[in-house]
C-alpha cells in the first residue's frame, strides 16, 4: 500500500547501531468521532508545531512501510496529510532485536532535528516515547496502540476486539469443518485483544467451534511481526489439524499465513489493512475479509489536529461506533453473510454485545 511514494531517508551522524536499525515493530479516553548518543543529553529547545511545510517524523514498527498491513496503514495516513498540509516527512523504522535505547535514539534524532510532531507506530515505543517526550516538552508526540501518559503525548488507541469479533463470526459462518485458527505475531496483551474478539465472534455463531491458537514469538522477541516463514509454518500446522479458515494478527508474518492457505485451498482473514487489496496478487483470492484497523485515519486525524492547533494529549479511542475498526468486503466473499455480520456490528454499537478484551 503506497509503499514507494515516500522513500525511507538515510540516517547520518548517529551511532553505528542506529545506522543499521534505521532501516521495529495494541483511564477513560475520548472516543473518536471524526475522522546525541543513547542516554546522552538532548536539547529541548522549542520546535515549531506542524503547519504548511513543517517537518513531521514517523517511526515505524518492525517491517516499516511495505509490510502490507499495520505500518502501511500508518503510511497511508501520513501520505494523505503530507499531500494536504504540505508537510516534510521523515520516516524511520525499527529492526528485529533492537533495544529500547535504540528506539529512544531514533526519536531523539527526529526531535533534535526539528521534526514536530513525531508519531511512533506500535506499543514497542511505549517506554522510549515516555522518556523522550519529557526531554522535548515542546514537541508533540503521538503513539499508536499504547496509553503511555505525558503532557505532550497523544494516544491513538483502537477497539481491536470489536473488529475481530466480526471476522470471527465470518470465520465461523464460512467454515465447513467447524475448525478455525488464530495466528498472533507476538504473545502480548495487545494481540490478546484480537484473539479474544475473534473467539467471541466465532462462538457467537457456533458455541462448540474448535479454535486453534498459535503465537509466533514471545517477548522480548518481536520478530513474530516480521517473519512470513514462521507464519506459514504456524498456519500449515493448523490446516493439517483441520482448520479451514485462519485469521492472522501478525503484521508482515501474515504473508506466510496467506501462502499456506493458498497452497491448501483453504481460507484466510487479513488484519489492519484491507489485505485483499494490499497482499501479493498470488494470494489475494484466499482472503475472504480483513479486520480493518484504521491506523491511517488516526494518523491523519492527529496530523490534522496539530496543523489546525487543536491537538490534545491523552487517549482517543477508535471503535466500531467511531468507524475506527470494521471488516472489509473486497472481493465479495462475505456478501452472502454480510447481513448477519452487520447485525452483530449494530448490536456491539448499541451495547447489546460487549466484546471481551482478553
Automatic annotation (TrEMBL):
Low complexity composition bias: residue spans: 31-49
Xref: Pfam families: Bmp
Bilayer topology annotation: Lipid-anchor
Domain of life: Bacteria
Transmembrane segments: none
Signal peptide extent: 1-26
Subcellular location: Cell membrane
Region (Disordered): 28-49
Keywords of this entry: Cell membrane, Lipoprotein, Membrane, Signal
Keyword Signal: yes
Record InterPro entries: BMP_lipoprotein, Peripla_BP_I, PnrA-like
GO annotations of cellular component type: plasma membrane
Residue ranges constituting the ABC transporter substrate-binding protein PnrA-like domain according to the UniProt record: 61-357
Cell membrane among keywords: yes
Alphabetized PANTHER family for the sequence: ABC TRANSPORTER GUANOSINE-BINDING PROTEIN NUPN, TRANSCRIPTIONAL ACTIVATOR PROTEIN MED
Family (UniProt): Belongs to the BMP lipoprotein family.
Full protein name: Basic membrane protein A
Taxonomic placement: Bacteria, Bacillati, Actinomycetota, Actinomycetes, Streptosporangiales
Amino acid at each position: 500500500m503506497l509503499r514507494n511514494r515516500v522513500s525511507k531517508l538515510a540516517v547520518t551522524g548517529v551511532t553505528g547501531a542506529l545506522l543499521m536499525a534505521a532501516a521495529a515493530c495494541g483511564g477513560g479516553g475520548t472516543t473518536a468521532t471524526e475522522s546525541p548518543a543513547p542516554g546522552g543529553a538532548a536539547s529541548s529547545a522549542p520546535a515549531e508545531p506542524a503547519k504548511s511545510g513543517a517537518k513531521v517524523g514517523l517511526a515505524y514498527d518492525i517491517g516499516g512501510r511495505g509490510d502490507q498491513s499495520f505500518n502501511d496503514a500508518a503510511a497511508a495516513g501520513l501520505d494523505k496529510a503530507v499531500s494536504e498540509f504540505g508537510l516534510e516527512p521523515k520516516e524511520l523504522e525499527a529492526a528485529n532485536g533492537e533495544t529500547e535505547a535504540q528506539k529512544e535514539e531514533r526519536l531523539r534524532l527526529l526531535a533534535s532535528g526539528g521534526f514536530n510532531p513525531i508519531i511512533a507506530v506500535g506499543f514497542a515505543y511505549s517506554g522510549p516515547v515516555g522518556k523522550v517526550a519529557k526531554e522535548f516538552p515542546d514537541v508533540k508526540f503521538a503513539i499508536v496502540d499504547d496509553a503511555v501518559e505525558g503532557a505532550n503525548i497523544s494516544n491513538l488507541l483502537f477497539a481491536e476486539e470489536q473488529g475481530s469479533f466480526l471476522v470471527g463470526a465470518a470465520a465461523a459462518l464460512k467454515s465447513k469443518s467447524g475448525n478455525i485458527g488464530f495466528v498472533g505475531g507476538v504473545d502480548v496483551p495487545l494481540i490478546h485483544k484480537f484473539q479474544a474478539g475473534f473467539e467471541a465472534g466465532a462462538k457467537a455463531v457456533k458455541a462448540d467451534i474448535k479454535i486453534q491458537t498459535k503465537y509466533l514469538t514471545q517477548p522480548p522477541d518481536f520478530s513474530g511481526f516480521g517473519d512470513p516463514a514462521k507464519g506459514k509454518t504456524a498456519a500449515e500446522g493448523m490446516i493439517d489439524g483441520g482448520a479451514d479458515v485462519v485469521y492472522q494478527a501478525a503484521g508482515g508474518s501474515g504473508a506466510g499465513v496467506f501462502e499456506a492457505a493458498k497452497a491448501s485451498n483453504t481460507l484466510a482473514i487479513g488484519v489492519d489493512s484491507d489485505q485483499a487489496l494490499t497482499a501479493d496478487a498470488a494470494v489475494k483470492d484466499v482472503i475472504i475479509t480483513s479486520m480493518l484497523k484504521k491506523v491511517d485515519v488516526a494518523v491523519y486525524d492527529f496530523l490534522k489536529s496539530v496543523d489546525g492547533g487543536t491537538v490534545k494529549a491523552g487517549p482517543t479511542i477508535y471503535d466500531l461506533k467511531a468507524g475506527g475498526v470494521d471488516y472489509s468486503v473486497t472481493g465479495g466473499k462475505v456478501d452472502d453473510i454480510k447481513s448477519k455480520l452487520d447485525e452483530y456490528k449494530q448490536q456491539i454499537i448499541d451495547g447489546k454485545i460487549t466484546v471481551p478484551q482478553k
